[in-house]
Amino acid sequence: MVLRGYVPTSEETLQTLAALRLQSLNSDFSTHAPFPRLEELFPPHVLHARLPPPPHQPPAKCRGARLRAGLLAGGLWGQALAKQRAERDQRLRGRLREEGASTMAAIVEKWKLLQGMGRPEAMAAYVALVREWPGFGSTLFDVDLHASPMGAGPQRLWLGIGAKAVSLYKPGEPEPLDSFCYGRISSFGASDSSTFRLSVEDRDLLFETSQVDEIAQLLNTYLTSAGARQLPRPQEPPTSPLSSEPTVLPQGLCPAATPWQHRPPVGSSHS
């Protein structure tokens, strides 16, 4: 969850989490300790976000302009552009290495401060920091909210499904844009193979997603565990809540646990 960017928190906290992971893996700081790669400790997208965006290339507006651009691209001008791009890419790679080295140095300094902390304590401190996010314990799904009546285009969101509520997050934001307890949900289901419908009181929300079935299954699971009435999916009979088969929670964007943990899964509904 942390490395893939699905725990919205400050960069300072991300560095502390990385230091706690090093303490758990290697115990106290030592120059002889095996070092994981930075991307195994710290979200890579945070470093990439520091780089300047690529320059905007305006599209050619007419056939003549496209023809001239094609002719230029095949000559000295095209070679000059290719050289500029190569130099820019080299500068960006250098900048990324610098940012990575600076971040790793900050993580190591925090690691040194953890001297004497045992592995169980480091793991407990790690989980305690992650738990500070209000969405902790939810399963997150990447969805596109369909265009609103105001004419806006689809909006990329996180759909968080937890034990008590369904929440909508702007990616990277710690607080939800909206949250619906299960008592407010009147129906839900698949409008088609890639569209999930969620009816909340007098509102219908349509989400474009590749995980329609996983979302519906997880909602059914939480409604059943809460003792609520199960809601049938469109054109399907209701599922009996008395099924003897064990329920398997589907995986969203957040895996239930990482290999170094021996505590209950971070993303589980029991958290």
TrEMBL record:
Annotated Pfam families: FERM_M, IRS
Extent of Low complexity compositional bias: 241-250
PANTHER family linked to this entry: AGAP003327-PA, PLECKSTRIN HOMOLOGY DOMAIN-CONTAINING FAMILY H MEMBER 3
Residue ranges occupied by any FERM domain in the UniProt entry: 1-233
InterPro entries assigned: Actin_motor_Myosin, FERM/acyl-CoA-bd_prot_sf, FERM_2, FERM_central, FERM_domain, IRS_PTB, PH-like_dom_sf
Organism superkingdom: Eukaryota
Protein name: MYO10 protein
Start and end residues of each stretch annotated as Disordered: 228-271
Gene3D superfamilies: 1.20.80.10, Pleckstrin-homology domain (PH domain)/Phosphotyrosine-binding domain (PTB)
